[in-house]
């Protein structure tokens, strides 16, 4: 165990900070992630998933969007690798893919809160 996180055999410990200059592949993946966040319904769905896994019906109710729109957004998020699915009886349960994305969503919404409320910026 390194830094409170179990290491997988043959892999280095996961890190939260990558200090090297990003290469083209990393910039492309980062830009693709931000494109997926650029829709308010998708962002709302992802924010809801930071609170825990959910099925389509729960996400429809929480977002107020219609079922078709939520399903289409979830399909895009799944194809882009930002959410995962598992089957539970007759329901498909969606989850946010990892802690990096969770922290990105939460920080983005904290930033939005500061912009909307006028609260001073901070580090």
Helices and strands in order, then pairings?
Layout (H helix, E strand, L loop, with lengths): L23 H14 L2 H11 L3 E2 H8 L3 H13 L3 E6 L2 E6 L2 H19 L6
Antiparallel strand pairs: 1-3, 2-3
Helix pairs in contact: 2-5, 3-4
What does this entry look like structurally?
This protein is mainly α and 123 residues long. It is built from five helices and three strands, in the order ααβααββα. The chain has helices at 24-37, 40-50, 56-63, 67-79, 99-117; strands at 54-55, 83-88, 91-96. The chain has a three-stranded antiparallel beta sheet with strand order 1-3-2. α3 crosses α4 (67-79). The radius of gyration is 17 Å and the shape is globular. Residues 1-8 have low confidence and may be disordered.
Q: Largest sheet, described in full?
A: 3 strands, antiparallel
Tell me the β content: 5-15%
- Flag low-confidence runs: 1-8
Please list the strands of the largest sheet in the order they lie side by side.
Answer: 1-3-2
Strand segment count = 3
How many distinct helices?
Answer: 5
**What letter string, H or E per element, gives the SSE order?**
HHEHHEEH
Average pLDDT level: 90
Shape from CA axes? globular
The chain-level structural class is: mainly alpha
Report how far the terminal alpha carbons are from each other. Answer: 30 Å
Oligomerization state: single chain
Helix content: 40-55%
Rg from alpha-carbon coordinates: 17 Å
């Amino acid at each position: 165990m390194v830094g409170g996180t179990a290491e997988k055999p043959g892999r280095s410990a996961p890190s939260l900070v990558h200090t090297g200059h990003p290469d083209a592949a990393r910039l492309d993946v980062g830009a693709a992630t931000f494109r997926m966040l650029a829709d308010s319904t998708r962002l709302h769905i992802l924010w809801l998933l930071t609170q825990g896994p959910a099925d389509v019906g729960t996400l429809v109710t929480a977002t107020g969007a219609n079922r078709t729109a939520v399903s289409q957004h979830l399909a895009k998020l799944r194809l882009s690798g930002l959410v995962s699915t598992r089957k539970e009886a007759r329901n498909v349960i969606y989850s946010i893919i990892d802690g990096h994305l969770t922290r990105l969503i939460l920080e983005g919404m904290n930033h939005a809160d500061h912009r909307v409320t006028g609260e001073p910026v901070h580090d």
